[in-house]
Design brief:
The protein is of the alpha+beta class and 253 residues long. The protein contains four helices and 21 strands. The termini are far apart. This is Cell wall-binding protein.
């Protein structure tokens, strides 16, 4: 009887504590901003590998979901979901961790360190072969995007192009047009160019530029500014220039 009383007293104590200090249910959900997606966990966010709704995802230290890239030799597709990928995933991962390969292929290297801003792995022309874009550089003078693809028959990585971007770099990808975008700027001239891959060649899909002229007074204060827009070498209005982005569809950074 005494044991039963002690047990009942213990239960009542637990119930009393729960009433006085209710346990809040951790609410988890996906959220998005202009930078990307993250997954909330109560008042914090997920980092590292997380298994969500029967799929594996990876979140950086800043909480943002990784996508179109390789983490620890695991390929994360455009939705951020772990996907096995093809043999090119192993080849790209090994290349990114091989300093000799990086230097031989022109990736910016200084003081024994590679300067890679971002490595993007995606199927640009949607032919079933993953391609790799390496945005690399130390400053506006040498930023570039190096483009690679993989040959199943030759079992090797093929370098297709170095795209000079000055102060810019990789901007995003349009799956509807099968085009990746790079942007940059120099001396009041700004550009956003689109590229795709055809027959193992990186080809220019379109070019767009914005030039800004500033009118200043004797004290070099800006009085007014004017903008000139071009698409594929043809001067267009600001509206036509902006509409071009709409035609590209959703651009995934």
């Amino acid at each position: 009887m005494q044991i039963l009383k002690k047990a009942l007293i213990g239960v009542f104590c637990v119930i009393s504590i729960l009433i006085m200090y209710p346990i809040s249910i951790v609410h988890a959900e996906w959220k998005q901003d202009s930078t990307g997606w993250w997954y909330t966990e109560g008042n914090s966010w997920a980092t590292g590998w997380k298994y969500i709704n029967n799929s594996w995802y990876y979140f950086g230290k800043d909480g943002y979901m990784a996508h179109d890239t390789i983490i620890n030799n695991y390929y994360l597709n455009s939705d951020g979901v772990y996907s096995k990928g093809g043999e090119e995933v192993d080849a790209y991962w090994n290349a990114l961790n091989d300093n000799s390969w990086l230097q031989e292929n022109g990736i910016i290297f200084k003081n024994g360190k590679s300067y890679i801003e971002k490595a993007v792995v995606l199927d640009v022309n949607q032919d079933g072969i993953l391609d790799m874009l390496i945005w690399n550089g130390t400053c506006s003078a040498d930023y570039k995007v190096s483009v690679f693809t993989y040959s199943n028959s030759k079992e090797k990585i093929i370098k297709l192009k170095d795209i000079e971007t000055f102060s810019g770099g990789y901007l995003g990808y349009s799956s509807s047009k099968k085009v990746f975008l790079v942007s940059g700027g120099h001396m009041d001239n700004y550009f956003t160019d689109g590229y795709t891959i055809e027959d193992d060649k990186c080809v220019n899909y379109y070019e767009s530029t914005e030039h800004v002229d500033y009118l200043t007074d004797n004290n070099r204060n800006v009085i007014s500014e004017s903008h000139k827009y071009t698409l594929n070498g043809k001067e267009v209005s600001e509206k036509e220039y902006n509409d071009n982005w709409i035609q590209l569809g959703e651009i995934k950074k």
